[in-house]
Amino acid sequence: MAVPKRKHSHARKMKRRSNVWKLNTPALAVCPTCGEYKAPHKVCKNCGQYNGRQVIAVEAE
Question: Can you tell me the distance from the alpha carbon of 13 to that of 4, in angstroms, rounded to the nearest whole number?
């Protein structure tokens, strides 16, 4: 079994892990009907519309 001969330095370890912690922000689009933020290419949870059509019946509060 392969075993490293020497310990990796802290700088080398952190250089390797440097891009692991970065998270992408979720893409958000504004719903043209109600103005709420929603995921692109998904039905709006607030008004239930997608691409100008009523897809989900949403109860009025």
Answer: 14
Q: Which two tokens stand for residue 24?
A: 């992408």
**Confidence bin at 61 (pLDDT 50/70/90):** low
Separation CA 50–CA 38 (nearest Å): 11
> Which residue type does 3 have?
V
Task: Give the ranges where the chain is alpha helix by DSSP (H).
Answer: 10-16
SS3 14: helix
pLDDT tens-digit series, residues 25-35: 889 999 999 99
pTM across the whole model? 0.56
The β-bridge relationship of strands 37-38 and 29-30 is antiparallel
